[in-house]
Amino acid sequence: MIINDSELSVVGATGHSAKFFFDRLVKENFQNRVKCLLRRDSQIEHLKNYELDLEFVFVDFEDFNSLITAMKGTKIILNIAGIRVSEKIVQAGTEVGVDWFICVHTTGRYSKFKSASAEYMQIEDSLLKKFSNLTILRPTMIYGSSRDRNMFKLIRYLHKHKFFPIFGKGNNLMSPVNAKDLGDAYYDVINNRASTFGNQYNLSGKEEITYKSILEETALALGKKVLFIPLPIWLCLILVYLLNLILRSRFPISIEQVLRMKEDKVFSWKEANSDFGFCPMSFRDGIRIEVEEFMNKIRV
What we know:
Layout: E1 8-11, H1 18-27, E2 34-38, E3 54-58, H2 64-71, E4 76-79, H3 86-95, E5 100-104, H4 114-130, E6 134-139, E7 142-143, H5 151-160, E8 163-167, E9 173-174, E10 177-178, H6 179-191, H7 193-196, E11 200-203, E12 209-210, H8 211-222, E13 227-231, H9 233-247, H10 255-259, H11 270-276, H12 283-299
Parallel strand pairs: 1-2, 1-4, 2-3, 4-5, 5-6, 6-11, 7-10, 8-13
Antiparallel strand pairs: 9-12
Helix pairs in contact: 1-6, 2-3, 5-8, 5-12, 8-12
């Protein structure tokens, strides 16, 4: 197996999908050392529970020399920390002879709203122009456990309330990807180097699903009857505009976020399936797992 043949470093080892990557390493009885590059304030207690040979290296990501020192001896870097650190990771790793960079970015680069996509496009295009030893993975919206920033908040809200407002009709298409599927993808990408080296993949959920259906499936998994109230986009824009004027930074929703509710966010995972066997679970199956975790937590 290729993953056993090279020194592997993980950036973002405390992240949401990283947990499922380490779970997969345990399942595969992975024996080699894995170097985890971490910020000094990272919480790592849960990582110490893995039956893996994990080396924790604390790095100042603002210090280029610190990155270079931390990466010495590494041949493969898996960057789960996000697109904004990719440039530094790739540049520092290149200085010490890293052979392969696997960078987890985002399908946000495809948004028609420039404020959401321009930075991502600039970073990726610059890297792809300079380096050929990159494999880029672009997940859609990630969900799958209490650590996600999206669905778990929605689950908590729907559990407490009987009404939920929808910006528009909720017919915009989405394809959320489960964090477990991502963790497995990282492992499978590395083990299929012959077909994945230097390529780019969009990683989404099994099917396209409307935003309204996402809400309905979540409520169904909770066993709750929730009334979803569609609000005209024009009315939502006025309300959000006024609330932003009044509350400014304290109001969590921007006008662009409302407009993006009309934007479809669906991407094919067929190429990933062909090259490394990516086969994501359905949203219905994934949200039931997350709801079960939520219910277990509130019972404690």
